[in-house]
Amino acid sequence: MLNMAIEKTKTPPKKPGLKSNIARLLRYTLARGLVLIITVIIGVYLAIIIANGGGYVDDIRKGQIKEQVGLRVMADESVRDLNHVEKKEYEERLYQLELERLNLDRPFWARSHEYLINGLTLNLGRAEYLLSDSGSRQVRDILGERLFPTLLLMATGQLLLFFISITFALFLSRRYGSVIDKIVVALAPTSAAPAWFFGIFLILLFAAVLGWLPFGGMVSAPPPSNRFLYALSVLKHMILPVSSIVVSSVFITSYHWRTFFLIYSSEDYVEMAKAKGLPSSVIERRYVLRPTLPTIITSFALTLISLWTGAIVLETVFSWPGIGRLTQQAINMFDTPVIVATVVVYAYLLAITVFLLDIIYAVVDPRVKLGVEGNKS
Hints:
Elements: H1 2-9, H2 18-51, H3 56-75, H4 84-101, H5 108-120, H6 139-174, H7 179-187, H8 195-209, H9 227-265, H10 268-275, H11 280-309, H12 311-317, H13 323-333, H14 336-364, H15 366-376
């Protein structure tokens, strides 16, 4: 009797309240954000070192400056009366002044931290060879013109890929073993090829053979003056690259997610929901789709990151005026400031993508949101 009285007087453990959950989520968000910031800093610093070849590019630029100064001295009539030694001294003074003006008078490793700060703030000065559409050499202007096309293309392709894959996976889970299910299983290995590979075939079929769609670019030439016609032209040019993104990953993602849906649809609580007579749409949404969301988000995050990194070749194939094509042009022309700037932009895009997916993951899965403290409560 005494034990029963003691048990009755015990208060049940309180569940964490809304404020506590929000505080834990904020701590989780800050921790993930700090880790991503450190990762971006390390990645940008390594990119600066690699793009400069550990100082090798500076040596090339010094050689070019020395050659330009020598040609300038030879063409200067005011120094023609000087002897050979005086000409060399005059040329060396001009060379040193030019190095100081371009901040090349110090070793590369002593200036690398300045490059890092400038890189993180995209304060990279002037490009060496590339120009913006307005004729500016400022790296910020060049990137500003190329960032929106990349975001437009990749965001559209990724959102379509996500919703098409999840809808198709649910459709396949209801028709396990059917002909269409077997076709998807057979086509899943084709997703090993990147998006640009499928893009080449789509260009050959719909642009070269059928002539239905343009070969590449973002808008017709000359661009339509009417805004509505301009938007239609952009949509028409987006069809092939967006289709390449979707086709390259839709079969493997649908196959993966269909497998998870099949696993969860065979659980006891799903059978009980069916026995209660709940509609199939409610069962799929509440008892099949919701438990699989963390796994689906993880899979989608990996696909998302691979698509971001693959944008360089994809945009080059379709002549899409985005960050990816700019990166290819900068590499071909060895334009170091633009190379570093594009790497920084991709680092920011990847970090933001991973950060947002982490937050979504924490909101969807309470175990991640509550963390260790949630397990203790």
